[in-house]
Amino acid sequence: MSQHSESFIAKSSIKTADKEHRRKLNFNIGKYNAVVPQGKQQFYDLELAREKAKNIKWKAIENLGELLQDFEENATRRGVNVIWADDAQQALEAVGKICEAKNCKTLVKSKSMVTEEIHLNAYLEKQGVQSIETDLGEYIQQLDGETPYHIVTPAMHKSKEDVAKLFAEKLGTDPSLTPQELTLVARQILRKKYTEAEIGVTGANFIIADIGGIAITENEGNARLSCSMPKTHIVIVGIEKMVPSINDLALFWPLLATYGTGQKITVYNTIVTGARQEGETDGPEDMYVILLDNGRTNILANEKLRESLYCIRCGACLNTCPVYKNIGGHAYESTYSGPIGSVITPHLKDKGEWKHLSHASSLCGSCSEVCSVKIKLHELLLENRHEAVDEGHTDLVERTVWKFWKQAMLNRRIMNFGNAKLKNQFVNKLLKKWTEHRAPLDFPKKSFNQLWREKYGDR
């Protein structure tokens, strides 16, 4: 068992027993569940919309190399500096060089899971650059020294009382402040940071090939400020965020809004196609787009797992997953949690160390049912398990036990050997790792053959 697997089991055991944690999580997810059905009503034919979105992403991923080249050509034409990063280290070094060239001391950053993936804030701290999260949820998490808890809602596990207490401890505010008052405190602090920052960093919800632009979806306006007020704008984005045409956003924007937060459309939807052009009065002087691979081409090369790259990060699979709803986001110890995280993390990192995430599923299929682009997530989880076995990421004990189990299941004499009590004692002692975190196996008192003979005789 890997170190990450042991840690996952330990943290999961603690969180499932924490009733207050589960209450907060279920309360916040309950609010999501109440509004998402309303947002879905805007679609005349929801299933057709999801199917069309999946087909567009299929086209984008199948032609990813060509579309990335189109994007680079079109973006470069408008003065964007496009940087290709094979891994996290290359992306970090690229950001570091830009910060050094711009003599950057303060950097403002909008919500971006890919920057969490490469641990940008920790890197910048070592470089002496102050990196400020400007999304309210991310800002709360940064104050608390925590990573995001959820793909869409970074501080989903915190109540308003938790946030008030945190602000009082870190910012010296009155612990009785209301959510509205707390928001105003954060707004006042962050507005000053925008004016101080030399560089703004954003992610991108979509890369648009035909115009060489990026699309950002948000509800607070902080991403617009991050990419327009500082003199330099850096975009860090995974290569899988590609869509072929600007026209595709007419479908993806409302689909992402509905499945992400239950809205018909998010408050701010921005397309950025470059830095300030001649004759324009505002905007950054320089724009950089860092196209990050970091294991994504490993998934692209896998025909069965390639479908996971269609994900638009709406977070719907997390909100419906019975495992996530019990253990929360931090137990996964990975940037991407929930079903989609369990699918892609073993391929973005070391499979032997992270294969356990693919087992963190009931395989109920609810994630596949709610996916906005109809990814068959539960089938991909099974595929991950299959690949882990085929590639030898299992120990000798596990392989031996399952080999014996297979032989027993294929041999009726072995299955019928002994009574139920003997079978229970033998199997539960043999499969200690299985029963350590699960209920003991309990064989029926009568075998199938016995029940058949009692009903039909020997015929």
* Shape summary: globular
If you consult CATH, what is the topology of the largest domain?
Answer: Rossmann fold
Q: How many H/I helices?
A: 24
Averaging pLDDT over every residue, what do you get? 93
CATH top-level class of the largest domain = Alpha Beta
CATH superfamily of the largest domain: NagB/RpiA/CoA transferase-like
Residue share in helix: 40-55%
CA(first)-CA(last) distance:
48 Å
Number of domains: 3
Q: Major β-sheet, in short?
A: 6 strands, parallel
Strand order of the largest sheet: 1-10-7-4-2-3
Could you explain the architecture of this structure?
The chain has about 450 residues and is α/β, with parallel strands linked by helices. The chain is about 55% helix and about 10% strand. It is built from 24 helices and 10 strands. It has helices at about 5-15, 20-40, 45-60, 65-75, 90-100, 115, 120-125, 135-145, 160-170, 180-195, 220-230, 250-260, 295-300, 315-320, 325, 340-350, 350-355, 365-370, 375-390, 395-410, 410-415, 420-430, 430-435, 450-455, and strands spanning about 80-85, 105-110, 130-135, 200, 205-210, 215-220, 230-240, 240-245, 270, 285-290. A 6-stranded parallel sheet has the order 1-10-7-4-2-3, with helices on both faces. It has a 4-stranded mixed sheet with strand order 8-5-6-9, with helices on both faces. Helix 2 (about 20-40) runs antiparallel to helix 12 (about 250-260) and helix 16 packs parallel to helix 19 (about 375-390).
